[in-house]
Amino acid sequence: MLVRVRAAGVDQGTWHQVTGLPYLGRLAFGLPRPRMPVPGLDMAGIVEAVGTKVTGFRPGDEVFGIGRGTFAEYTTAKRIVPKPANLTFEQAAAVPVSACTALEVLRGVEAGQRVLVIGAGGGVGSYAVQLATVFGASVTGVCGPTKVEFVRSLGATEVIDYTSTELSGQYDRVLDIAGSRPLPTLLRLLTPRGTLVLVGAEEGGRWIGGLSRSFGVLVRRPFTRQHLRAPLSIVRTSDLTRLSELLTEGRITPAVDQTLPLIDVPTAITHLRNSRVRGKIVITP
Ligand SMILES: NC(=O)c1ccc[n+]([C@@H]2O[C@H](COP(=O)([O-])OP(=O)(O)OC[C@H]3O[C@@H](n4cnc5c(N)ncnc54)[C@H](OP(=O)(O)O)[C@@H]3O)[C@@H](O)[C@H]2O)c1
Question: What digits encode the pLDDT tens for the residues 242-255?
Fold first, then answer.
């Protein structure tokens, strides 16, 4: 399916894609050069043409999901669903990778549970706070001082500015999206049968990067009654459909901080790397 891109989302994965770091990631992105020379995965757009075996979509349909090399005028679709009519293309393009990841790392959360979201003001975090709230959890968001009001507006019952307040208390689920705290510190924040989910980490060196912490989880898992997870999330059509329903009902809303033109992709990635983005940044061709 050929899709005319109307907007494309940017996430930390884009930086890994264009830099080829950490090196271990090249097993996925391509050795010795990128398999896909054009970066970009998230997108929203209009179906331009369909192959003979395609069912359920036809030219002119408005869709969102993931495609191949979406920082371009056109892309071929990998996984897409119809775009909710109440969303702009820019909003829809901000959904796939970050919201599917948030949904994945919240699987099993029950109403009444206490959830701590570390990195609540970013792409994955902005959806995690909203989704956990929709699932009936009580959410504490952790972010820097410039994002406190933003995280509160997403529905967090409590917001902690990590520059002025130490993390304390016990939570049924801790999502470490920012990825800078040692495992023992995170485990102290968990109830005896709580769940720690390592979502991301941008530290750990050029060879294995944040995956070093995932290995730490594997080593500790047999020796604790707490649940330790470090999932690699993928964008599933079923998850996009579920998110689409929540978006249509207005129960979650994409937080688009900024929209930049295609020529400014490097600026967008730099903003994201410098933690300047509240929620998501989106590219338009
Ligand atoms: N496991 C997977 O499959 C998967 C999927 C998607 C993404 N990820 C990973 O998840 C991570 C986050 O992705 P993202 O797209 O949400 O990135 P993002 O939009 O850059 O969000 C990260 C947030 O963390 C905050 N932060 C930085 N240092 C912090 C600290 N010490 N304590 C609390 N918050 C802190 C940043 O802003 P402030 O400091 O201003 O609050 C920023 O808002 C990345 O490492 C990415 O690679 C993993």
Answer: 999 999 999 999 99
CB of 252 closer than 6 angstroms to any ligand 1 atom: no
State the distance from the centre of ligand 1 to the C-alpha of 86, rounded, in angstroms.
27
Under CATH, what is the fold of the domain 2-95+254-284?
Quinone Oxidoreductase; Chain A, domain 1 (3.90.180)
Ligand 1 pocket residue status of 274, Cβ below 6 Å: no
d(CA 259, CA 84): 19
Could you tell me the residue ranges of all domains in the chain?
Answer: 2-95+254-284, 99-229
Task: Give per-residue pLDDT as tens, 13-57.
Answer: 898 888 888 888 888 888 888 888 899 999 999 999 999 999 999
Kindly report the pTM of this predicted structure: 0.96
